[in-house]
Amino acid sequence: MPKVSKRGQNILSSPIRKFLPLMLKAEIEGVKVFKLNVGDPDIAIPPQLLPAIKKYKNKSLGYAPSPGISEHVAAWLKYYGDFGVKLKPENLIPTVGGAEAILLAILATTDPGDEIIVFEPLYASYKGFAAMASVKLVPITLKIENNFALPPAKDIIKKISRKTKAIVLINPDNPTGAVRTRAEINRLVKIARGHNLFIITDETYREIVFFGQPGSVLQVPAAKNCTILVDSVSKRFSCPGARIGVIVSYNQVLMSAVLKFAMVRLSAPTLEQIGLIPILKNARAYTKKITREYKKRRDLVFTALTKIPGVKCQKPNGAFYIIAGLPVKNSEDFVKFLLTKFRYQNQTLMLTPAQDFYVTPGLGKNEVRLAYVLNTQSLKQAMLILKKALEAYKNR
Amino acid sequence: MPKVSKRGQNILSSPIRKFLPLMLKAEIEGVKVFKLNVGDPDIAIPPQLLPAIKKYKNKSLGYAPSPGISEHVAAWLKYYGDFGVKLKPENLIPTVGGAEAILLAILATTDPGDEIIVFEPLYASYKGFAAMASVKLVPITLKIENNFALPPAKDIIKKISRKTKAIVLINPDNPTGAVRTRAEINRLVKIARGHNLFIITDETYREIVFFGQPGSVLQVPAAKNCTILVDSVSKRFSCPGARIGVIVSYNQVLMSAVLKFAMVRLSAPTLEQIGLIPILKNARAYTKKITREYKKRRDLVFTALTKIPGVKCQKPNGAFYIIAGLPVKNSEDFVKFLLTKFRYQNQTLMLTPAQDFYVTPGLGKNEVRLAYVLNTQSLKQAMLILKKALEAYKNR
User: Fold this and answer.
1) In order of start, what are the domains of chain A with their CATH numbers?
2) Which of A213, A374, A379, B12 is deepest in the core (most CB within 10 A)?
3) B245-248 vs B227-232, strand pairing mode
4) What is the reported pTM?
5) Is A11's CB within 8 Å of B264's CB?
6) Is the reported ipTM for this assembly greater than 0.90?
């Protein structure tokens, strides 16, 4: 029998999705599971989205142009313009979610064996895409005690080798919720320019910040030629099922390579590109509202966590995640316990063990990521369940 | 300034799309362009598709499960069952069009530097995906004189090296329209089994065959463990903009790697998975009808081409493409001539130069691919324009 490739053997299961079978089993048994594991927003989609799709009356449903439907691209330009980022159509290509934008950014900047510097813990899909591209991630570990701040320049420069091609910056960050300061961004831009590296900046959660104004690395003039922005409608418009994202750069040599990749995979979905046009043109009407809601939830979850004995966490400033250190040895084992053994009022909880967000083996073993994508009432109950479950786990 | 990767530099522009700017210019000048270049069907989509999408009433638009929405997967199982291919849900994962299925199949079977045997001319995206995966395509050249039949086993075996991991079979074939005989398929299966290779079988055009019954390599019992099927709704349901395909295999080790890749990229579009459920369950009601229409067009185009002096072609048995050898030295130059200089009744034609469908440099220079995706009246006019244009080109 022929053998699966090394990259196929090496790739890890998604930390977010690998406990799915246990969760489904609990649900079949009639247990209510509060799902804080996936960043799948519960908030209603913008009211214009489905009507805009339902207006589609063509007899055919053809490929969108590989560089995007022009009205959709124009809507993105308006969107970025509202944040002070002036783009031309050739700076931007719609993708199949932020996921495809990440893959294309990696492929356009690296060859097999090359290295990308990342800050860990990091959104686990980067590990998967690096495996698919046969590229090595070189991690710099951020600490919960330090609220996941970036280290000084010298600690980053130390990790650069002849094979380093890019640095990834997720801002606001998944999974930590950290929001980068202008000083942190300037530090990275200076390093990238000094060492001829690309910055892959993932701004999927741009508007979900709890103080200050949403921004972009692309606002930094010095970042222009070395920055690739990957972005997505999934979180800010609560519609990850639409599978629309975008890859953006002022670097035209890079964008011409990305366009060729985009032509190979043909196009992003036609109906969703159309449906998102009115929403992109007036994004802040929606994103301001949901950010207020996420802030309420952040406050509730953070306050509740700090009251649970043995739990360590820091107040996140953006996105809708929080990393919590738990008083357990192995959070994978604790999550299994939640799904298979623990019930409180016939309810339980699903969290994501944090260790797979780390590149370095052995780190994050006592940590979990919580996505606060449920309403405040559910979150209140979920926090109670977490408290009870930690007690029961300790006494098991 | 940081540099684009080698794979980003090496990837070619899509042969189908690279003349787009010239075509748009002609259209802006008011010229009617008959587009026989892209496999973008003009036929109306199945009437159930949009209504099924428009029924969607959820307040959220969440990720579909990475292994697909269960009702959508069930609809595919019914679809394959109708062709005598019995599958379980774990044998199949919905993808973002056939394109993503091809990429995942390549990634699951090869590592950088590995080789895949292909028959040229071949669907050009394979060249692009191989570049993205840093894999080498090893071509076996098929001849127009021989109606693009597969060569004897010994000529295929000759191309196998220690690095060969898979053989690609597109059936019915894009761009030649060839439909493989059972003998050809058995030959490949025997070779694959004998040399521990995977067969990546691309059956996007399955139902569009002009004699005999549509089938699948998966019907061959000996092919079970070595075959990966990539498939798509784009052509058979005339909806390439839906971006839904599927990757299928009985090999569970392989499918577990594919599932991990699928989790990294999260999911295929939610609305389109839902919309296609009723259509997949009763596919033949639609595909029989469109196949009759494509047969009419095939007959018209083939007959017209054989009457143009100097044109060489063979009758294709499936898909909706035909490769024609033209009495020109360089078909790229001829296509440019069509778009920029030639007008007949203020109309012209867009074709795809065939040379980029070849892996071997220098082959196919006088060939073009025609996609008969227009109605018979338009095709009749297009064939007249082609005849006039070849005369004008000769006398230019």
Assistant:
1) 6-44+286-394 (3.90.1150.10), 49-284 (3.40.640.10)
2) A379
3) antiparallel
4) 0.96
5) yes
6) yes
